[in-house]
Amino acid sequence: MASSTALWSFALVVGLLTLTPGLDTALVLRTAALGRRTRAWGVVLGIQTGTLTWGALTSLGVTALLTASHLAYEILRWAGAAYLLWTAVLMVSRTFRKGAGGERAEVAIGGTDTFAAGWRQGTLTNLLNPKVGVFYVAVLPQFIPAEAPHFAMGLGLTSVHVVLGILWSTVLIASATALGARLRGPRARRVLDRVTGTVIGLFAVRLAVGD
């Protein structure tokens, strides 16, 4: 397989994956819809930092440990499920609180409109999802030509995924921002947080049961 063919083929696979609604989409939309553009971009770049890290580790052969070691996979799986469940509980519970209690819950899930807070949430959400690592272990090597430098080609393919993710996130943020004025009232915000928190909680349960 030629390098150019590998790039286009991999772009098609990860492009379809990027467009599929999932946890990343929910986090970006929720953050942008609340008018936190700075934080939303932090979430986006945090997610892509995690993606680039998984791609680099896969290219080095490190993530193969996830498939070779059941214990390593289980530890990461439960850590990821616990983090997502914690985020979901705080996000939903804050909608039932008033005053300082709600503000403390908002800060606990990194609700401040800062790039760093969004970046931390996006990075942790991605890196604590072992299914991303398993995806890269299963898919990435298939698109690396035998004659190509393994690490450099792996990073090149991963960069394609990152670029597509950023482009799609740009569309999501622009769309959510356009509708955001209708979603920033107290009632709409509570509904948005409850829906997003429920989605994140379902992802946590799905990760925990290994589905």
From TrEMBL:
| GO molecular function per UniProt | amino acid transmembrane transporter activity
Q: Does the keyword Transmembrane helix apply?
A: yes
Q: What is this protein called?
A: Lysine transporter LysE
What does the UniProt entry say about where the protein is found?
Cell membrane
Coiled-coil positions: none
Of the GO CC terms on this record, one is: plasma membrane
Q: What is its main location?
A: membrane
Native organism: Streptomyces termitum
Q: Which InterPro entries does this UniProt record tie to the protein?
A: LeuE-type
Question: Where do transmembrane segments lie in this chain?
Answer: 6-29, 41-69, 75-92, 150-179
Which keywords does this Swiss-Prot/TrEMBL entry list? Answer: Cell membrane, Membrane, Transmembrane, Transmembrane helix
> How does the UniProt record describe the way this protein sits in the membrane?
Multi-pass membrane protein
* PANTHER family in the cross-refs: ARGININE EXPORTER PROTEIN ARGO (PTHR30086), ARGININE EXPORTER PROTEIN ARGO-RELATED (PTHR30086:SF20)
Report any Pfam family annotated for this entry. Answer: LysE
